[in-house]
Amino acid sequence: MLDIGPLELVALVVLAVLIFGPDKLPKMIQDVSRTLRKIRQFSESAKEDIRSELGPEFKDFEFEDLNPKTFVRKHVLDKDELGLKEIRNGFDLKAEMTDVADAVHGRTGDAAAPGSAPSSPDGGSPARPDLLKKPRKPEPGERPPFDSDAT
């Protein structure tokens, strides 16, 4: 009920009694309930008028479908004609991220044992560059190494 707890409901009742007084409170409750009932009737009659104007092809039209979340849930996720659940269940994000990290660090999936230091292709030095060591200068005519982080 509108996400109101019992303690909050008691506080609202006490506040209403203090503001309107015990003699006017029953009339206020009647007026509010009558107004809510009229609004609900007006809303239902407007929905029926729209359904009748749309014609028989929209007899199953629900106004809740106008909410994008409800529409997607009803038409895409419930039917699952495209096999989205199978795709979603078959996708292992952790394994994909591990593969990407291995590719970035120059490790292969089989050779890199957990806990072992990866080696670079040119020899026994680690795959991570030594930032204190000066990089070698390219020969004249040779292209400089490509740095994906710099682009």
Automatic annotation (TrEMBL):
One of its GO terms (cellular component) is TAT protein transport complex. Keywords: Cell membrane, Membrane, Protein transport, Translocation, Transmembrane, Transmembrane helix, Transport. It is found in: Cell membrane; Membrane. Its main location: membrane. One of its GO terms (biological process) is protein transport by the Tat complex. Residues 104-151 are annotated as: Disordered. Residues 130-151 have a biased composition (Basic and acidic residues). GO terms for molecular function: protein transmembrane transporter activity. Residues 109-127 have a biased composition (Low complexity). It is a single-pass membrane protein. InterPro entries: TatA/B/E (IPR003369), TatB (IPR018448). The chain crosses the membrane at residues 6-25. It comes from the Bacteria. Part of the twin-arginine translocation (Tat) system that transports large folded proteins containing a characteristic twin-arginine motif in their signal peptide across membranes. Together with TatC, TatB is part of a receptor directly interacting with Tat signal peptides. TatB may form an oligomeric binding site that transiently accommodates folded Tat precursor proteins before their translocation. The Tat system comprises two distinct complexes: a TatABC complex, containing multiple copies of TatA, TatB and TatC subunits, and a separate TatA complex, containing only TatA subunits. Substrates initially bind to the TatABC complex, which probably triggers association of the separate TatA complex to form the active translocon. Belongs to the TatB family. This is Sec-independent protein translocase protein TatB. It comes from Streptomyces klenkii.
